[in-house]
Amino acid sequence: MGSADNEAELALLRKENEILKHENAMLNKQIHRLNARSFELRLQNNNLNEKLQEIETSNKKLEKIKKEKDELFELIIQDIKNPSMIIKNLVEIVSSFDNFTTDQQAVVRALVKTVKHVVNISQDISKVLLISDSEKLTNSAFIDPVDLIEKVIENNKLDAQVKQQTISTDYANNLPKFKVDEQKMFEVFNNLVSNAIKYTQVSGKIKVKVNCPDKKNMEIKVCDNGLGISEEELKSAFQRGKQFLDMDIVEQESQGGIGIWIVKRIVEAHKGRLWVESIPGRGSTFTVQIPIDFEQ
Description:
The protein is 59% helix and 15% strand. It is of the alpha+beta class. The strands form 2 sheets. The protein has a 5-stranded mixed sheet, covered by helices on one side. A two-stranded antiparallel ribbon has the order 1-3. Mean pLDDT is 82; it is low at 246-257.
């Protein structure tokens, strides 16, 4: 019996050993397959990394090309806009003379209309270029708010003179400098002052007030005694494409409606606020409040 039991145990052990060998062989095959798959995944991962690197390099090249294109485009627009503005203002001044024949007056009116159209197109293109860049504040520095506003007024002086309007200022004493992207902030107030001129009647009054009431925020108001904005229109005053139009006051003006929308984006990028108060027929006040030292 002892010998038979031993034989049975040996047979069982041999069987279990065969099973273990088989399972071991299966495990080795799985390990081999996993190693092969792991190798494939490493290759794919390396390929993906290479592709990502190529995409990143391509994106950088595209960004550089886009930046160069926008800069060149902006230069071209400025080359068109600056002389066009001078011609526009001169032609408008000439058109106010009263010693022309009927035919000459018709020619001058046609010139005014054409030059305004060229200026408006160049201004609208400049605004479109600002849209994608309005929230990128790459050149922030502390600047004098008075210097900024004086530059804006100088830029709009001839347009106001053509409509016999007065632009006055009210600067608080001892104003601090505030940290902004000067070029973009110039666009903000240039747009607001330009709109005030546009929507204010002949011989109207425009005033720019600068104050720092709480020593933390610069507050700049652009006031006019022009058309004003109705309560209903105020609800959507800063929506893209919004325009306030009275053809008795505004003739042949650019009415794309994107200017004030970009203004709002630039102000908000500076962590600031923009709001408007208005009474129809009595004028509007646009207020911009910007932290003196904002954090991007």
